[in-house]
Amino acid sequence: MSSFWRGFRILLIGIGFRVDAVLADFVQGHWLRWFLPAQYLPRPKTPPAIRSRQMLERLGPVYIKFGQMLSTRRDILPEDYANELAKLQNDVTPFDPEVAVEIIERNLGQSVNSLFASFNLEPIASASLAQVHAATLKNDADVVVKVIRPDIEKGILLDFRLMGKVARLLERLSEDARRLHLIQVVDDFRRTVLNELDLEQEASNTITIRRNFADSPLLYAPRVYRHLTTKNVLVMEHIHAVPISDTKALHEKDTNMRKLAERGVETFFTQVFNHNFFHADMHPGNIFVDVSNPDEPQYVAIDCAIIGQLTQEDQSYLARNILAFLSRDYAEIARLHAESGWIGSHVDTVEFERVIREICEPFFQKPLAEISFGNFLLSLFNAARRFQMEIQPQLVLLQKTLLSIEGLGRQLYPELDLWTTAKPFLERWMKENFGLYATINEFLDHLPELVVQLPALPKLVLNTSNRLTALERAQRNQDERLAQLATRRQSKGSKRFIRLSVSLSCLVVATLLLWEPILGWINIGAPYWKALVGGVALLGFFGFARRSGGT
After folding, report:
1. DSSP state of 248
2. Dihedral through CA 178, CA 181, CA 187, CA 192, nearest 10?
3. Contact present, 374 and 76 (Cβ < 8 Å)
């Protein structure tokens, strides 16, 4: 199936589920509602929230992932939509369990009866890319068996080809799209989803997180059985814990909700800054709580396929910005943005500081229940558009994870003071990594290299001036070549525009010559008329052919 037909099918599915009626719920009072068929047609009987969830299921894994992300944002979605989309986390329609058994046996090279003491054909969870069955090993260990859905990769690649084409079109047409790096965002999302199809990678990630949090009261990752794991099958410890979304069960077990919420924030920052290896798919279907000791609740993380990592520069930049934000040091935020090159040198940093202050100040002195990071990020993006600020694709996963943490925090303990929890952690991390002690350690680590390079230092200093002069000369030559190239491209673009205009004119004339009143008015004989029409049309098509051929 081509991207065109996939796009056409998506359109038909949207029409079939009356997406116009869904959109009408979100644009009430806006002038856009007059362009929706729902304004003039009767509404379907099935509630729009249910149709939305069914439509995303029908569209496939990529769109189910989008619905999962939306389901965590109960602050921006109506409750009925959030509840329905939450079913996409682990309640997607399962595939035939006999097919799952066939995949397991083909990948592990043995029958299910040989591999397991017992195997439950009824799946205990079914998500967008895989489904999970409970089983027992021969040594009586309780495990779960995760199986990738059959023939799923081809459809995913097709959807991403279509999304890539749309992103490229938008980047050609819109400066905002270029600033947001839509093509790179789609490519990153594509790599992320394809990584989820590799269960060996998920097994490796799970083992790393388990090692990072060994003996930690914050987080537990299940044991993985590597000898029973392939790209399409993963066998790991069966976790018996309470789903994070089941707040009723957590309250019934007298769980310390404040400590649970605070540990969630600490776990996030520990993964991002201490480990630089963070679980980036923390929707409620992937997070459980061990309440065997209700006053010391511990998180349990599964489905570790999507992992985020940052460069040291990004970590430092992020920590310094958050600390500046928590300290209300808006001048420092403006300085950091200018220093990192995220805003151009032409931007007035004083004006940028004023705008950041206007955005950030209202968020202080409020409990978490009254703060929306979604609205905060939207305000920042509006400011970014105003100052042509570059949106960094490497932080997209981090932003997504932070939004998920916010959604979980709202459900667990709305009174959580995120700032009080985060600030001491970040101050300690900055001191350990960029304070005097860290500087001394860094110097001592590189001391042997410095000793080796010391005799060459005078020569390096003497050569610096000559090298800088050469670089400046090379930069001037490069600028001249770029200016010449821009002039040639502008001239070539003008010629293409003229050729396209002439081609279109020829096709219009050829079409008009086929119009009966024109024929009667010109009064040309049929052979001459056909030759004229054919010649004009041929000129038009020849012009288009030359243009598409790149000439």
Report:
1. H
2. -150
3. yes
Is the pTM higher than 0.70? Answer: no
Separation of alpha carbons 183 and 170, rounded Å: 9
Strand spans (E) along 157-244: 219-220, 233-237, 242-243
Catalytic residue at 281? Answer: yes
| Type of residue at 210 | R
Chain position carrying tokens 């081809």: 154
Mean pLDDT confidence for 391-396: 60
Residues of the chain with pLDDT > 90, as a percent, come to 23
Calpha distance 180→381 (Å, rounded): 9
| Annotated catalytic residue, options 159, 281, 290, 303 | 281
507 vs 325 pLDDT, higher one: 325
For 115-160, how does the pLDDT look when each residue is reduced to its tens digit (9 = 90+)?
A: 999 999 999 988 888 999 999 999 999 999 999 999 888 888 888 8
Helices (H), 329-395: 330-340, 349-360, 373-386
Neighbours of 72 (CB within 10 A): 26
Q: Which two tokens stand for residue 118?
A: 């017992």
The predicted structure's pLDDT at residue 265:
83
Closest by Cα among 154, 192, 170 to 2 = 154
Residue found by looking up tokens 């400046």 in the block = 472
d(CA 288, CA 302): 8
325 φ, ψ (degrees, to nearest 5):
-65, -45
Burial class of residue 187 in the structure, from the number of CB atoms within 10 Å of its CB (0-12 exposed, 13-18 middle, 19+ buried): middle
Which has the closest alpha carbon to 220: 196, 197, 237, 199? 237
